[in-house]
Amino acid sequence: MEYIISTITKKIGIITFNNDKFRNSLSEQMLDEMLQVFDEFESKKVRVVILRSNPDARVWCAGLNIKDLPIPGLDPLPYSHPLERLLRRIELLDVPVIAMVTGSVWGGGTDLVLTCDIIIGSQYSSFAITPAKLGVPYNSKGLEHFLNILPLNIIKEMFFTAEPVKADRAYNIGLLNHLIDKEDIEDFTMQMAENMTNNSPLSIEVVKEQLNLLTDARPLTPDVFERINELRITAYTSNDYKEGVNSFIEKRKPEFTGE
What percent of the chain has pLDDT over 90? Predict the structure, then answer.
């Protein structure tokens, strides 16, 4: 593996992001490596999975690698995208997945964190969702991940401003299960994971799937589905999307026109 390190200890599978040079951005190769490791963990019957960065990484995850976004006119987050496949893998995994976050998280990285079952952060954690900085239309499943955890007004603020939510506030609004000093977070997270391994794996599996089914029970009429699809197409075929991607690559402030 080039971009992650995987280990198993005491029935706990640990995935460590190991691409600090590029701020652990979610390239297609890194996402594919994570999917492979989840398959390995499942075959070896781990009881808990922990996602983490290297201890000194200031950025836990910078989100999707901008260079992997398709040209304007194509859906940037289709159902088959490796990130979408990874998020479904985490959601449908039989065992709990814990995000141990000790740095800043951006864009699709925040979606990744919110898809995990439990989120533990340190004082250096922060969370930003940034599609508005690129003109990217976020997909409905990603929005559902936010709706399952956060109040609607908080979600709107995060998406509309694209500004980071710092650790204290993230804990106060319920984004974090626990806010732990960075010096203690690894021991705390491992102790929680070990406690889970002592409980009934079947009970945990059944409860997790039930909760997934209940939170997914938001039926959409065909009319609503078609309207959502039309809205997203309007955005990812727009000049704003093209300008957002180009300005990011050229390291300049975007000039959005709403067209």
Answer: 69
Question: pLDDT tens digits for 63-84?
Answer: 988 777 656 666 667 778 899 9
Mean pLDDT of 125-146: 90
**18 has pLDDT over 90:** yes
Q: Cα(119)–Cα(189) distance, rounded to whole angstroms? A: 10
Instruction: Give the start-end residues of each E strand in the chain.
Output: 4-9, 12-17, 48-53, 59-61, 97-101, 104-106, 118-121, 126-128, 165-166, 178-179
Q: Please, are residues 66 and 106 in contact by the beta-carbon 8 Å criterion?
A: no
Q: What three-state secondary structure class fits 165?
A: strand
232-241: per-residue pLDDT in tens? 788 778 888 7
| Paired residues of 16 in beta bridges | 5, 52
Q: What is the DSSP string of 7-74?
A: EEETTEEEEEE--GGGTT-B-HHHHHHHHHHHHHHHHTT-SEEEEEE-TT-SEEE--B-GGGSPPTTS
Can you tell me whether residue 238 is helix, strand or coil? coil
**Tokens of residue 187, six digits:** 């021991």
The token pair at 79 is: 């159902």
Neighbours of 217 (CB within 10 A): 7
Q: Does position 176 have pLDDT exceeding 80, yes or no?
A: yes
C-alpha to C-alpha distance for 53 and 102, rounded to whole angstroms:
7
Q: In a 10 Å sphere around its CB, with 0-12 CB exposed, 13-18 middle and 19+ buried, how is residue 191 labelled?
A: exposed
